[in-house]
Design a protein that fits this description.
8-stranded parallel barrel; binds phosphoenolpyruvate; binds magnesium ion; Phosphocarrier protein HPr
């Protein structure tokens, strides 16, 4: 299927052997959420809350935040909505959250790290999200971006639970978090792999430089091995492992991710149909064989070829 073609999605994500697979949407606000619901997404796997406040000079009030979050939750009554706390900084600086200048913003005070400087910003957001959750029927889960250590995860989980939020997770976007997955699963209820940043930080290549696109590639074996470690830890802990980076919308990669232990995929809504079609062609066994094959490769090209050779209809 040509990459530009939008394949319709009927809302039923499942493998060829019938195992259901949640296919979720990435959204940045209420309008996106309405579109995602119309595209039959099962729920939201990534709500990028910073997108609601990109034009703000001052921090939004709790009331303004409640309204913004309710707009997204209302589009998915009774469904899962994973809300990410502000991922300000680096490629998405917010004037009210970030310092004026940093030498290496991708390695600076971004995402959860902002709470070191201004914990009230995070606590207000969690309070607003708890209020929005009470007012709507969506099954809200909250997660933090840019976590690198066990202490950060513990601090975030404590704050989120103290605010009254019951399902708490973190994004796995740093090699450190992937390597510590087993310890992190002792603290959180779920994780979501942010493969865009995980590739950026694993290959040490700025994700904004198209010149380095070959390095910022989730098929890089180092990235796949880290994903596999997280998948293993998730299986052992009996906890959910999502993918919400661009990799989640790659139909060729989806069976590999499932084989590596990923339990849900979140993507831009226009990718839902193509990913659903790709996973409907494979069994859980196919996925495991594809994962096994890519883990034995040393280059991204070899990983792609190894998956194609194993999966039905692609070899
Ligand atoms: C990611 O890093 O893969 C991700 C989903 O987060 P963002 O693209 O918003 O940094
Ligand atoms: Mg990210």
């Amino acid at each position: 299927i040509a990459a530009a073609t939008v394949v319709p999605f009927d809302g039923e994500g499942a493998l060829g052997d019938g195992r259901p697979l949640a296919l979720l949407a990435n959204v940045g606000g209420a309008a996106d959420a309405v579109n995602a619901a119309a595209a039959h997404a099962d729920g939201v796997g990534l709500f990028r809350t910073e997108f609601c406040f990109l034009d703000r000079v001052d921090a939004p009030s709790v009331e303004e935040q409640v309204a913004a979050y309710r707009g997204v939750l209302a589009a998915f009554p009774g469904r899962k909505v994973v809300v990410r706390t502000l991922d300000a900084g680096s490629d998405k600086p917010l004037p009210f959250a970030n310092a004026d200048h940093e030498g290496n913003p991708a390695l600076g005070v971004r995402g959860l790290r902002i709470a070191r400087r201004t914990p009230a910003l995070l606590d207000d957001q969690l309070r607003a999200l708890a209020q929005a959750t009470e007012a709507e029927s969506a099954q809200v889960e909250v997660m933090a971006p840019m976590v690198a250590t066990v202490e950060e995860a513990r601090d975030f989980a404590d704050r989120a639970r103290a605010a009254g939020l019951s399902r708490v997770g973190i994004m796995i976007e740093t090699p450190s978090a992937a390597l510590l997955a087993a310890e992190l699963f002792e603290i959180v209820d779920f994780v979501s792999l942010g493969t865009n940043d995980l590739a950026q930080y694993t290959l040490a290549a700025d994700r904004l430089l198209s010149e380095l696109g070959d390095l910022n590639d989730p098929w890089q074996p180092a990235v796949l091995r880290l994903i596999g470690m997280v998948g293993e830890a998730g299986r052992a802990a009996g906890k959910a492992v999502g993918v919400c980076g661009e990799a989640g919308g790659d139909p060729a990669l989806a069976p590999v991710l499932i084989g590596l232990g990923v339990t849900s995929l979140s993507m831009t809504p226009r990718s839902l149909g193509r990913v659903a079609a790709a996973v409907a062609e494979v069994t859980e066994d196919d996925c495991r064989r594809a994962a096994h094959a890519v883990l034995a490769t040393g280059t991204a090209a070899e990983a792609r070829a190894a998956a194609s050779a194993v999966l039905p209809g692609r070899g």
